[in-house]
TrEMBL record:
Superkingdom as given in the UniProt entry: Eukaryota
InterPro entries, alphabetized: AA/rel_permease1
Annotated transmembrane regions: 68-90, 97-119, 139-159, 180-207
Protein name: Amino acid permease/ SLC12A domain-containing protein
GO MF annotations in UniProt: amino acid transmembrane transporter activity
Major localization class: membrane
Species of origin: Peronospora belbahrii
GO cellular component, one term: membrane
Keywords noted in UniProt: Membrane, Transmembrane, Transmembrane helix
Subcellular compartments: Membrane
C-alpha cells in the first residue's frame, strides 16, 4: 500500500521492483504478474462455465449441457474471455461503466445472500462450529486442516488487491485514494466472504453446504436459490475484464520503460 502511493504508476510489483532493485528483477516480476493474471482470468472463466452449466441443469434437468464445458475445450469460458476483450476494446470509459454496473449487481446479490441467509439460519447447524477433521472425497476436511485449506482457497479472491495497485497510474490523487481503495478491497472481501460462509453453514448441515444456492434450496427457498444462481452467472465474469485491464496497464508500463528491449 505504501509503495503504491510512493510509486503511483502502472505496473504494481513491476514498477516497485524497477525503481528499487533494477530492470532484470522488474521484468521477472512482470512475467510473474502476467502469469498471475492469466491463471486467475482462466480460472474465473472456467468457474463461470461450471456455474452456467450447474444453473442450467437445475432449471432444465431433462437436458444435457456438458457441451458447454468439454474436457478439451471450455466453450463458455472462451466466450467470456472474448467478451471481456470486446468490452475493453470499447474503451476505458465504457469498460468502467460495465464494471461498475456489474459490481453493483454483485454487491446486491451478496447482501441478499447475507440478509436472507440470516433469516433462514438454524443456530443448531453451527454446532459444532469447527467440526472434527474428517476424510471427504479422498481429502482431509474440517478441523484445523480444513481451516488452512479453506484459507488457501480464499486467498485466490485477494488477487483484486494487486490489480488495484496495478491501476495506480490511472488514479487521481493516488496518495489519498490508493490506500482507501486497497483497504476497502481487503476489508470488504474479508467481511463479506466470512458472512456468506457463516450464513451458509447456518442454513444447512455443514456436510450439505456446497453453495449458497444449494443452501437456500435445502432450506426450502427455491426462489432464493434461483436468485443466487442467476446472480452468480451474471456477475462472476466481471473479474475477467478487470484482470485484462490490469494486464494492459502492465504491458503499457513495460513498453514505456522498454525494459525488455534493453535486456535483449
Amino acid at each position: 500500500m505504501e509503495l503504491s502511493t510512493c510509486v503511483p504508476s502502472s505496473g504494481s510489483t513491476y514498477a516497485y521492483a524497477y525503481y528499487t532493485i533494477g530492470k532484470l528483477p522488474a521484468v521477472i516480476a512482470a512475467w510473474l504478474l502476467t502469469l498471475e493474471y492469466a491463471v486467475s482470468g482462466a480460472g474465473v472463466a472456467r468457474s463461470w462455465g461450471d456455474k452456467v452449466e450447474e444453473w442450467l441443469m437445475v432449471e432444465y434437468p431433462d437436458k444435457s449441457f456438458r457441451w458447454l464445458n468439454l474436457p478439451f475445450a471450455n466453450l463458455s469460458g472462451g466466450l467470456i474471455q472474448f467478451l471481456s476483450m470486446v468490452v475493453l476494446l470499447m474503451g476505458v470509459r465504457s469498460g468502467k461503466v460495465f464494471v461498475h454496473t456489474v459490481t453493483e449487481i454483485k454487491m446486491s446479490v451478496v447482501v441478499f445472500i447475507i440478509i436472507a441467509g440470516f433469516a433462514a439460519m438454524n443456530p443448531d447447524n453451527l454446532s459444532p462450529f469447527i467440526p472434527k477433521s474428517t476424510e471427504l472425497n479422498g481429502m482431509m476436511a474440517f478441523g484445523t486442516q480444513g481451516i488452512i485449506t479453506g484459507a488457501s482457497h480464499a486467498l485466490f479472491g485477494y488477487a483484486g488487491f494487486d490489480e488495484v495497485c496495478c491501476l495506480a497510474g490511472e488514479t487521481k490523487n493516488p496518495k489519498k485514494n490508493m490506500p482507501i481503495a486497497i483497504m476497502a478491497v481487503v476489508l470488504c472481501t474479508t467481511v463479506l466472504s466470512a458472512l456468506c460462509s457463516l450464513v451458509l453453514a447456518g442454513m444447512v448441515a455443514f456436510l450439505e453446504a456446497a453453495s449458497s444456492g444449494d443452501g437456500f434450496e435445502g432450506h426450502g427457498w427455491k426462489w432464493a436459490g434461483t436468485v443466487v444462481r442467476l446472480g452468480e452467472v451474471v456477475t462472476m465474469p466481471v473479474v475477467a475484464p478487470i484482470g485484462f485491464l490490469a494486464q494492459s496497464c502492465l504491458n503499457y508500463a513495460l513498453a514505456c520503460r522498454a525494459s525488455a528491449a534493453h535486456l535483449s
